[in-house]
Design goal:
Chain A: Belongs to the binding-protein-dependent transport system permease family. The complex is a heterodimer. Chain A is an all-alpha fold. Chain A folds into 2 domains: about 5-60, no CATH class; about 60-295, Orthogonal Bundle (MetI-like fold), CATH 1.10.3720.10. In chain A, about 75% of the residues lie in helices and about 0% in strands. Chain A has a two-stranded antiparallel ribbon with strand order 1-2. By secondary structure, chain B is an alpha/beta fold. Chain B has 2 domains: about 20-175 and about 340-380, D-Maltodextrin-Binding Protein, domain 2, CATH 3.40.190.10; about 180-335 and about 415-460, Periplasmic binding protein-like II (D-Maltodextrin-Binding Protein, domain 2, 3-Layer(aba) Sandwich), CATH 3.40.190.10. In chain B, the strands form 4 sheets. In chain B, strands 1, 2, 3, 6, 13 and 14 form a 6-stranded mixed sheet that branches. In chain B, helix 2 (about 65-80) links the parallel strand 1 and strand 2. The longest helix of chain B has 24 residues, at about 1-25. The radius of gyration of chain B is 26 Å and the shape is globular. The chains are: A mainly alpha, B alpha/beta. The interface of A and B includes residues 28, 68 and 245 of A.
């Protein structure tokens, strides 16, 4: 062992590695190994009971022929609509919460609460809120406006809007906090200068606030897209068997069903890799496009 | 910087070691029975003809509600009293996670010695050689008399190397679950009509529809129906009673496009679409039909024996009846569910594992507790025909459960194929018929090729 480093550096190095080792080991054993194994498995038919049999690309071919797979992709893309809606709502909330008022921190906490609530428990509550006959929401619509509310989770056309609604409720708090941080980092000199030039509130928002927040918009969009593509828990609870006409199933739900309801592990692995590819490509495109619209100070 | 590389390779090397150690561990079969000092047989409990045996531990995994868990804990305690050298390690997991957990354990070679199998699981597991053939044990056992067990229950756990239903026994029934037609007596009295008879064939769909119309009511005049005649009507019953079927098991053909099938399906759909005596598809989802019945807002519904404890608390009178017969054939049918106990082919303690399965399945005291707590119909024929029929709690027409088991109950759909994607898709897409978007005839014609393809993919 030839070592050109002085003694104290060597000691430090040793410490660095020993601190880094546990997570790295954990990742290698529980992360990388299964990931690599799932590539290998995606070329097999494996029901977890009998030994895997090599079938080449058949899983991928079947996947591209499977109507349910396309349906689940469509559903997932549909859910992406929640992202722009969520951004608008969160930004408005952040602007409201960016005041120096008494008790504002309590308000912020209230809006942030859904983010830290366990998603399964919350989904069960939503199931009751959205129930057609006994649900809070439909009763509210009926009592106040005389509208007979739809069967939110029981009709193919309403399942996805319901999921978006729930996503908004659970997501705006987190995005709001990001925007708040962004708003507070915008120097007030810009606004002062604009006021001197006679700009109104709307103009200030359009020409200063929104452009200066583009890094945050970008972060929210990228994370939102990835998060949406990975949404599963609420679907598992709210859309039994993928919902009516499979209208609520996302790609991850579809993969899960193939893996743990039908025990087609190879097929599910192939699905997971296609999903990984989709996310990767979309994120790549977003980064490529980001130069055009994200403002870097 | 080759020093760093060395480090990195060291990290990689060591991780590889750990990895290989991990995978090496899965080779040994599960259910290792490490005798612990605590379960040494107590000298006093030994009888003369029972030679002192090595203490063994048996793993048993099941699922179920807290009630069921309690029963099993008691059963296991009495089993351990009887076989003093055996200790049972019992795990109960939530029903929804059971299949996932069991398959994972099996595939990693850690299958419990005794476990539940049900539905399509039995088929898959028997085929993959995971279950022990119990025939030899069964033939020489003096624990029970196989003739005193429902044939329909035992047959579900036969496998002949290619199909289920014939051949050697690979499991013992935990129970059979006759899916019965239940009605709210008070609502029938209020409408002034005779309740459905317990004997099969006396009541047809038309009689049922008439009764349902009489019961359906809007009590507060807000234009919304408050009491429905019938809910969650059993499609299998309608189809089978009408002479149709979902699947021809011998040829593996999906037969939903036959007139016998789609007529029955249309009848079930029209209960809501045309006659408005049933809640519409949206309101019908799982919880609601049940909740409506329990709230006294539904005349006729369906139940399994496991629903008894909840129904015993109801403030109105109820009873079970035969499923209405198809007017075209005069016949009726319904599904018969079942869950079984299987023994792992890899168990190291064949005799003890079999004894446990047999004890849980057929021990008289356990069977008695089971029906008295409203969990199931006894597996033992003499008990079912004797004290079970005479038991004082509702339903009064207990004979209906037995009729279904012996007469017109059929293996439930999920247990008829290894892979049920075709079936799941059927139920998912069926809402197009329930909500009137398509007629049953058009929809079944459209779906048949799709379902056939799915069936072939998973089962051929």
């Amino acid at each position: 062992m030839k070592n050109k480093l002085p003694g104290y550096r060597k000691k430090e190095l040793w410490w660095i590695y020993s601190f880094v080792l546990p997570p790295v080991l954990g990742f290698l054993i529980f992360g990388l190994a299964p990931i690599l194994y799932s590539i290998y498995m995606s070329f097999h038919h494996w029901d977890m009971l009998s030994p895997p049999e090599w079938i080449g690309l058949a899983n991928y071919v079947d996947l591209l022929k499977d109507e349910k797979f396309y349906k689940s992709i469509f559903n997932t893309f549909y859910l992406l609509l929640g992202i722009p809606i969520g951004m608008v709502v969160s930004l408005l909330l952040a602007i409201l919460m960016n005041r120096k008022l008494k008790g504002i921190s309590v308000m912020r906490t209230i809006y942030y609460l859904p983010v830290i609530s366990p998603i399964i428990a919350v989904s069960l509550l939503w199931q009751w809120i959205l129930n057609k006959d006994y649900g809070l929401l439909n009763n509210f619509l009926w009592q106040l406006f005389g509208i007979e509310g739809p069967n939110w989770l029981g009709e193919a056309d309403w399942v996805k809007p319901s999921l978006i609604l729930i996503g908004l409720w659970g997501g705006v708090g987190g995005t709001m906090v990001l925007y708040l941080a962004g708003l507070q980092s915008i120097s007030s000199t810009y606004y002062e200068a604009a006021e001197i030039d006679g700009a109104g509130g709307w103009q200030k928002l359009k020409t200063i606030t929104i452009p200066l927040l583009t890094p945050i918009h970008f972060f929210v969009v990228v994370m939102g897209v990835i998060g949406t593509f990975q949404s599963f828990s609420q679907i598992y609870v709210l859309a039994v068997d993928g919902g009516p006409e499979y209208s609520g199933a996302t790609i991850v739900y579809y993969i899960f069903q193939n893996a743990f309801a039908y025990f087609n592990m190879g097929y599910a692995s192939a699905g997971a890799w296609v999903l990984g590819l989709i996310i990767f490509l979309i994120t790549l495109v977003q980064f490529k496009l980001s130069d055009r619209w994200v403002y870097q100070e | 910087m080759n020093n760093n590389l060395k480090w990195l390779s060291l990290v990689l090397m060591s991780s590889m070691l750990v990895l290989s150690a991990c995978s090496g561990g899965s080779g040994s079969a599960g259910g290792s029975a490490e005798p612990t000092p605590s379960n040494e047989p107590s000298g006093g409990g030994e009888t003369a003809e029972q030679p002192k045996k090595e203490p063994v531990t048996i793993e048993f995994m099941g699922h179920g509600n807290p009630n069921e868990k309690k029963i099993f804990e008691q059963l296991i305690a009495s089993f351990e009293k009887k076989y003093t050298h055996v200790k049972v390690k019992y795990t109960s997991v939530p029903p929804g996670e059971y299949g996932q957990k069991l398959t994972t354990l099996v595939s990693s070679g850690k299958a419990p010695d005794v476990f539940y199998v049900g539905g399509s699981e039995f088929y898959r597991f028997a085929e993959s050689g995971i279950l022990m053939n119990l025939q030899a044990q069964l033939d020489q056992t003096d624990l029970f008399n196989p003739d005193n067990v429902w044939k329909q229950a035992l047959d579900r756990y036969r496998y002949d190397g290619s199909t289920v239903g014939t051949g050697d026994i690979y499991g013992l029934p935990k129970d059979v679950g006759p899916w019965a037609f239940v009605y709210n007596k008070d609502l029938f009295d209020k409408a002034g009509i005779a309740p459905p008879p317990a004997r099969a064939g006396e009541w047809t769909w038309d009689d049922m529809l008439e009764a349902a119309k009489a019961i359906t009511a809007d009590n507060n005049g807000d234009g919304k129906t408050d009491v429905f005649g019938v809910g969650a009507y059993n499609l299998e019953s309608a189809v089978w009673g009408n002479g149709g079927d979902f699947l021809d098991s011998t040829t593996g053909t999906v037969t939903i496009d036959k007139p016998e099938f789609y007529e029955a399906m249309q009848f079930a759909a029209d209960l809501n679409l045309v006659h408005k005596v049933s809640p519409n598809q949206e309101a019908e989802q799982a919880m609601n039909a049940y909740t409506r019945f329990v709230n006294g807002q539904m005349g006729m519904f369906a139940m399994g024996p496991w629903d008894q404890p909840a129904f015993w608390d109801l403030p109105f009178g109820w009873d079970i009846a035969a499923w209405p017969a198809s007017p075209n054939t005069g016949k009726t049918a319904t599904w018969l569910g079942s869950m079984g106990f299987a023994v792992s082919a890899k168990t190291k303690h064949v005799e003890e594992a079999f004894n446990l399965a047999a004890f849980l399945s057929l021990d008289e005291e356990g069977q008695r507790q089971n029906y008295q707590l409203g969990q199931a119909v006894p597996n033992l024929i003499d008990m079912a025909n004797g004290e079970f029929l005479a038991y004082e709690k509702a339903p009064a027409n207990r004979q209906v459960f037995l009729d279904i088991i012996q007469d017109y109950g059929r293996t439930d759909l999920p247990a008829r194929s290894k892979d049920n994607q075709w079936l799941d898709t059927f139920w998912q897409e069926a809402s197009k018929v329930w909500n009137g978007e398509m007629s049953a005839k058009d929809w079944t014609a459209m779906m048949q090729p799709k379902l056939q393809e799915l069936y072939d993919k998973g089962n051929k």
